[in-house]
Structure formats: C-alpha cells, structure tokens
C-alpha cells in the first residue's frame, strides 16, 4: 500500500498503527514552548486532522463559529476558559470538550497558559479546477452571470 493510502512507504499490506507524538515531551518544554501549533498530524491518507496547540498566558483563540466540523479539545497542560453562547466554562488539565459544528466559541488561556490537543475530521483540500468548472457551477446554481 502506498504512503498516500495510509500505509508505510515501500511496504505492502494494510496500514499499521504507529506512535506519532510524545505529548509528555512536548509538555516538558513548559512555559518555554513557543505559541502556536507544537505538533500537527501530517500522515498521508489520513481521515483526521489533529494538532497540539500552545497558548501563552492570556492568549486566545478569538470568537468564531465552525460551520462544518465537530472538534474534540483535550486540555493537556495548564488551564483555559471556553466562552460559548451559554456562558463561560473552565477547562482545567484533563478535561475533554466537544465543540459541535455550528457552535460559537472562544478559548482563553489561563495565567500559566494552556496546551491542548484538537482532533476533527479532515477538511478536503482545495483542488485546482479547469475554468469551465466555474461555469458548470454557476449553471447548476441558476446564476447566469
């Protein structure tokens, strides 16, 4: 099976489970960890996306609504607050939270920052289409322009 099919390069047979990241090693960086994505799932042929993200003290993911994807968020270290239309929810280390598609939310890091794992279905990548594809889409939508 080719790597793009989820297998290992140069091997035949079904894809194999594998260790991808040691989160304890990432967490050992503590406050010295850079802000942003510390790790990203990048395996070819995957159906999921996952990230380990570090927000420094006072850092935030601004209020947004995710229209398409459910997201699981697991706090690995530190603490945060989830702001949603139903109020504020504390997110201490160890808390697993479901963020359903269509929900509005913001994440605010606590005084020591926060490191969390997110997992969601992979968004299909953008593909370059021939120019006539746009014309077909306009026709299908009834837009003659």
A few lines on this structure:
By secondary structure, this protein is mainly β.
Give a verbal description of the structure.
- The chain is mainly β and 145 residues long.
- The chain has helices at residues 23-27, 131-140, and strands spanning 36-40, 48-55, 60-65, 71-84, 87-92, 96-99, 104-121.
- The protein starts with 22 loop residues before the first helix and ends in a 5-residue tail after the last helix.
User: In which range does the helix fraction lie?
Assistant: 10-25%
Beta fraction: 35-45%
The structural class is mainly beta
Q: Please identify the oligomeric state.
A: single chain
Number of helices: 2
Descriptive terms for the model:
seven-stranded antiparallel beta sheet, disordered N terminus, 145 residues
Set out the fold topology.
Layout: H1 23-27, E1 36-40, E2 48-55, E3 60-65, E4 71-84, E5 87-92, E6 96-99, E7 104-121, H2 131-140
Antiparallel strand pairs: 1-2, 2-7, 3-7, 4-5, 4-6, 4-7
């Amino acid at each position: 099976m080719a790597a793009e099919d989820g297998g290992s390069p140069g091997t035949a047979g079904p894809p194999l489970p594998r260790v991808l990241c040691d989160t304890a090693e990432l967490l050992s960086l503590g406050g010295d960890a850079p802000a942003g994505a510390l790790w990203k799932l990048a395996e070819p042929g995957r159906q999921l996306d996952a990230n380990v993200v570090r927000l420094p003290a006072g850092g935030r993911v601004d209020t947004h609504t995710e229209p398409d994807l459910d997201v699981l968020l697991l706090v690995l270290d530190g603490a945060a607050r989830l702001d949603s239309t139903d109020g504020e929810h504390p997110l201490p280390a160890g808390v697993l939270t479901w963020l359903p598609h269509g929900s509005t939310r913001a994440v605010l890091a606590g005084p020591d920052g926060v490191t969390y794992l997110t997992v969601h279905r992979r968004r299909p990548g953008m593909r370059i289409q021939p120019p006539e594809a746009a014309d077909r889409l306009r026709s299908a939508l009834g837009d003659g322009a």
